[in-house]
Design a protein that fits this description.
Length: 126
């Protein structure tokens, strides 16, 4: 039997479910079918921002190898993700192409700052 209490309960539950659906839809990033099959899809969401920008920087400079200094090297997450994500560009400890975050200081003296991009500095060393 339907009474006022049951009707009120159904109404409250329906409003709650509608609000929950609105919240979920508002907080979920929507992807199209073409986003799913695009190379690198979701990379900007899955890896640290510095690594994502470093990859774009290396591609733009058309480098074959690179080295990291400062926080890009000392922070294990940034270092590991850089090596993995930037492949096939090769990490070489002795590379003349060195990348460092803007707020870090390069210790090597025989290097010249060539370019800067999205918080990352590129040095060429002898």
């Amino acid at each position: 039997m339907i009474n006022k209490f049951n009707i009120l309960k159904i109404l409250v539950e329906t409003v709650f479910l509608i609000l929950l659906l609105v919240f979920i839809i508002d907080n979920v990033k929507m992807y199209s079918a073409s986003d799913i099959v695009t190379p690198g899809a979701g990379a900007s969401d899955a890896i640290p921002h510095q690594v994502y920008e470093l990859n774009k920087f290396i591609i733009r400079l058309n480098l074959n190898d690179f080295a990291l200094e400062g926080k890009l090297k000392s922070d294990s997450l940034l270092f590991q993700r850089s090596i993995e994500y930037i492949y096939p560009y090769k990490y070489e400890e002795k590379s003349k192409n060195i990348f460092i975050l803007n707020d870090d200081r390069l210790i090597q003296e025989d290097c010249m700052k060539i370019d800067s991009y999205e918080g990352i500095d590129y040095y060429e060393c002898k």
